[in-house]
Design a protein that fits this description.
The chain has 183 residues and is of the alpha/beta class. It has helices spanning 18-28, 60-70, 88-97, 124-136, 160-175, 179-182, and strands at residues 4-10, 34-38, 74-78, 110-117, 140-150. The protein has six helices and five strands, in the order βαβαβαβαβαα. The chain has a five-stranded parallel beta sheet, sandwiched between helices. It binds flavin mononucleotide.
């Protein structure tokens, strides 16, 4: 059985990040045939700058990051919301993945986003912005692979309903067939 590799980008750098723990949980409970690859080190990517984005100057961190995501079959962002949008570290990562224009690592890559915040909205603006940005960067947003989960009154790391929604989102991302875009 062939393995589907999902590159996972976590939008929080906090050591005790709930979103990171969610990503780890999804990785640890991934179904057979699916590998969730948590791509660490987003904080080591310099701020995107066209002046250094060339063969001579591109930082090794960015080149390795692009290669790792390009080698994945799917991309999943797991992120909180900062000030009504996605955290800068995720935005910067998407910027690096968006170039070279038209040939970036996200080009044609099925993409989804999930995450949680301790507000009633669960990070939905962050998630909407991540999807818009990824689309412009060339990714293919997969319908219904968005979960904006409030953590008010629920332990998102153990609640069966929440985990069920998240596992289903991962399954839809993995099962997505490119042809369905044109249908
Ligand atoms: C700079 C900053 C801005 C934030 N802005 C928002 C926001 O706009 N909406 C929201 O739902 N939560 C916001 N929060 C709260 C985060 O969602 C919360 O800290 C969350 O737990 C972070 O996720 P993590 O546990 O994965 O680090 C903000 C937190 C920080 C530090």
């Amino acid at each position: 059985m062939s393995q589907t590799r999902v590159a996972v980008l976590v939008g929080s750098l906090r050591a005790d990040s709930v979103n990171r723990r969610l990503a780890e949980l999804l990785r640890d409970q991934a179904p057979e045939g699916v590998t969730l690859d948590l791509v660490d080190g987003l904080e080591r990517l310099p701020f995107y700058n066209e002046d250094i984005d060339n063969e001579a100057d591109a930082p090794e961190t960015a080149t390795a990051f692009r290669a790792r995501v390009a080698g994945a079959d799917r991309v999943l962002a797991v992120t909180p919301e900062y000030n009504g949008t996605m955290p800068a570290v995720l935005n910067n990562a998407i910027d690096w993945l968006s170039r070279p224009y038209g040939q970036g690592a996200l080009t044609g890559k099925p993409f989804g986003v999930v995450g949680t915040t301790p507000t009633p909205y669960g990070g939905k603006w962050s998630h909407a912005d991540a999807l818009r940005s990824a689309t412009i960067a060339g990714a293919v947003v997969v319908e219904d692979v968005t979960v904006s989960q409030s953590s008010i009154d629920v332990d998102v790391l153990s609640d069966p309903e929440v985990l069920g929604k998240l596992h289903s989102a991962v399954a839809r991302l993995v099962d997505f067939k490119q042809e369905t875009v044109a249908a």
